[in-house]
Specification:
By secondary structure, this protein is of the alpha/beta class. It folds into two domains: 8-190 and 374-395, Rossmann fold (3-Layer(aba) Sandwich), CATH 3.40.50.2000; 193-372, Glycogen Phosphorylase B (Rossmann fold), CATH 3.40.50. The chain has helices spanning 21-32, 72-80, 83-97, 108-121, 133-140, 145-157, 167-177, 193-199, 226-239, 256-265, 282-287, 302-309, 323-326, 341-353, 355-372, 375-395, and strands at 8-14, 38-44, 61-63, 102-105, 125-129, 161-164, 184-186, 212-217, 245-250, 272-276, 290-293, 314-317, 334-336. The strands form two sheets. The protein has a seven-stranded parallel β-sheet, sandwiched between helices. The chain has a six-stranded parallel β-sheet with strand order 10-9-8-11-12-13, with helices on both faces.
């Protein structure tokens, strides 16, 4: 007998469906959400992104810019400087029209829009903090950092529940934005361990034999710290004589032209492969020799658990949040200070010389990932949170 209980409408909100970690996590959640309990709806600022065509066919997609770009209304808002207001007002109308029971936003900028929209529409909200909140605010502050900090603090603190994707991010929300600790739950990013194994053998990336293959999967942006790994590679190739090194950069972003120019200036073009966006990077993980994440800031760093899931040794910077938790304090991979090319070079060379020692770390890491970041347990917990937030708002 079919249940007579109507599924709750849950709207997932993010800027676009690009290939980043936040977008991938939303996609995996939407795919696995129990349709008997929840009806997922997707709201984007821009209807674009590498992952857009992977959104399940039963998920309606709404986009602010679909009905706004190029209109007379958009030009008026631009002249008046009120486009931000138009954005959250559009979101509020969509929440009411689609009879949304819960709004789930998963980026700092999305949270800023979701806060006023959910209040006006009377819809409960779960806001996810996926990155160092102070770095997010500082990057987007404009002319007044004090005003931006106040707005960010209010936006998170007025959510029905805040999810942080690591313990470090939770503490940053408390320390930097004064978000009440009892409002925040830590939900790690999730990994389908079995799917990772299947995807890792879907194709052969054709990595050149006889080389030591160093891999980075990250957006090509300043905060990911590529320039420090570039300097480390320069030292290893030209000073230490490790001509076998070949660095594969999977990702796209605003720093690409600068990185290419730097590689040419340093004489490293034969040691760097710009691999672009890869819908499935797992075969690179399987065939590489070392994964390196040189980030200055991270919220969680899902790429580390992806590497460990397919037995790839890991080296990461010890950002204020994220990598240390994924690597269990360094038990499952090596950690070095951010912005330290010398430390990166030292550890890469150590892996070159002592590969078996690094493989032992990876064996522990693979088990840790499978036990700690299971997607099935994580989805079940998230769905219970959705029910709890909706019920609490209903009885108020």
């Amino acid at each position: 007998m079919e249940s007579s209980v109507k599924p709750k409408n849950v709207m997932f909100m993010v800027g676009s469906m690009g290939g980043g970690g936040a977008e991938r996590q939303i996609l995996e959640i939407i795919k696995r959400l129990d349709r008997a309990r929840f009806r997922p709806v997707l709201y984007l600022s821009h209807r674009k992104g590498e992952l857009l065509d992977e959104v399940p066919a039963d998920v309606p997609i709404h986009s602010f810019w679909d009905d706004f770009a190029g209109t007379l209304r958009s030009k008026i808002h631009y002249l008046l400087g009120t486009t931000d207001r138009a954005r959250w007002q559009n979101l509020a109308r969509t929440l009411r029209r689609e009879q949304i029971d819960l709004l789930y936003d998963r980026s700092y900028l999305a949270t800023l829009e979701a806060a006023p929209a959910s209040k006006v529409a009377g819809v409960p909200r779960v806001s996810v903090c996926v990155y160092d909140p102070l770095a997010d605010v500082t990057h987007s502050a404009g002319s007044s950092l004090a005003r931006a900090l106040k707005n960010a603090a209010n936006s998170y603190s007025t959510a029905d529940r805040v999810i942080s994707i690591s313990k470090g991010v939770r503490q940053q929300l408390i320390d930097d934005l004064d978000v009440p600790g009892d409002l925040i739950e830590v939900h790690y990013n999730l990994l389908d361990f079995d799917d990772a194994q299947r995807r890792s053998v879907e194709y052969d990336p054709g990595l050149e034999p006889g080389r030591f293959h160093l891999l980075t999967v990250a957006r090509l942006a300043e905060e990911k710290g590529h320039k420090y790994l570039m300097a480390a590679l320069d030292h290893l190739v030209h000073q230490q004589g490790h001509r076998e090194l070949l660095w594969h950069l999977i990702g796209v972003g605003p720093l690409e032209s600068e990185l290419r120019a730097d590689a040419e200036r340093r004489g490293l073009t034969n040691h760097i492969h710009f691999a672009g966006f890869r819908r499935n990077p797992y075969p690179f993980y399987r065939h590489a020799d070392l994964f390196c994440l040189p980030s200055l800031h991270e919220g969680f760093a899902s790429v580390l658990m992806e590497a460990l899931a397919v037995n790839l040794p890991v080296l990461s910077t010890d950002c204020p949040s994220g990598p240390s938790e994924v690597l269990d304090g360094g038990r499952c991979g090596r950690l070095v200070p951010p912005a330290d090319s010398t430390a990166l070079a030292y550890e890469i060379e150590d892996c070159l010389i002592h590969r078996e020692t690094w493989r032992e770390l990876t064996a522990a890491g693979r088990q840790w990932v499978n036990e700690t970041f299971s997607i099935n347990a994580g989805i079940a917990r998230l769905q219970d949170l959705f029910d709890d937030v909706i019920e609490q708002r209903t009885v108020q």
